[in-house]
Amino acid sequence: MIILLYGPDEYRRLQKKNEIIAEFRKKRSGLGIGFFDLGEKESFSGFQDFIKNRSMFETQKLAVLSNVFSAQGGSASGGEFSEKTLSEELKWTTKQAEVTILVSEKNKTSENLNFLGRKSVHPHTKRVGMGTGIKTQEFAYLTGAKWEAFVSEFAKENGAALQPAALKFLAEVYQNDTWGLVTEIQKIAMLLRKNIELKDLEKLGLEVSPNFFGLLGGLKSYELDKRLAALEKLFLLNEPMPKIFNMIAYQIPDKLPQLAKYDILVKSGKLDYEEVLVDLVI
Questions:
Q1: Fewer C-beta neighbours within 10 Å, C or N terminus of the chain?
Q2: Closest Cα partner for 120 from 99, 137, 104, 140?
Q3: What is the pLDDT of residues 198-242, one digit of tens each?
Q4: Was domain 2-138 assigned CATH 3.40.50?
Q5: How many CB atoms lie within 10 A of CB 26?
Q6: Do domains 2-138 and 144-203 have the same CATH topology?
Q7: Keyword Transferase: yes or no (predicted)?
């Protein structure tokens, strides 16, 4: 059978991968497990030998594959296989109860391997058993209440209790960055007292990344200092100046005639976008 773990949340995906490997090792005393990076030369032939050869001491086998969708038998692997060949081998394993293939990749599939995405397992399944067929589990980034629950639980596991304001702050700072969150909480648990408040996090210099569209809205403030502050933060984001200019045109349609004149001046080389944006804000 094949177990496919996929999605951008690499931390949670890796945790599940390690959980499956640990479960197999516990049951099989560490026998019958192989790791194959298909981006490396001769790895594919080693994988073929591993799944086809039988041993009385290895009644069950677990092959852990990496670079399944990215290597594609290219120069890194010496061109020793094609996606079609890999597809045939993987399809064969779906019918073998004694062979399990474990794949963990950011992307779900590629053209010749799209059969991998046809089956799914409930995201809260704790144990992925051996058998035949295909099981997939997605690890998208958590959001909302689920993300905050994850942040809170991980903090508790590391001996830190986050007060509500601190919890929401960390959840916002590290949204879509589970690895960053995990590293930060482990550091906080070692450095700070166990009952973490928002002021403790602020002392560490943590801050929420500026929101691009929120800053654009700040350019429409009636107060000059707020408009200038929003523009300065936009510059610090290193967003392309033409992008900021065009988004302002979209957000402030009543200034389109003025913006059109500025656009002509920029394209003729008489002004640059930074000068135009400052002039608009003032």
A1: C
A2: 137
A3: 888 877 777 655 566 667 777 777 788 888 888 887 787 777 788
A4: yes
A5: 9
A6: no
A7: yes
pLDDT, tens digit (0-9, with 9 covering 90-100), for 267-276: 888 888 888 8
Distance CA 93, CA 76 (A): 24
CATH value of 144-203 in 2.60.40, 1.10.10, 1.25.10, 1.10.8: 1.10.8
CA angle in degrees (0–180, nearest 5) for 205-211-214: 125
Cβ atoms within 10 Å, residue 139: 22
Cα separation of 27 and 25, whole Å? Answer: 5
What pTM, to 2 d.p., does this model score?
0.65
- For residues 1 and 169, is the Cβ–Cβ distance under 8 A? no
Residue environment code for 116-135, b if the CB has 16+ CB neighbours within 10 A, otherwise e: beeeebeeeeeebebeeebb
Tell me the three state secondary structure of residue 137: strand
- List all residues 6 or more positions away from 193 whose beta carbon is below 8 Å from its beta carbon: 200
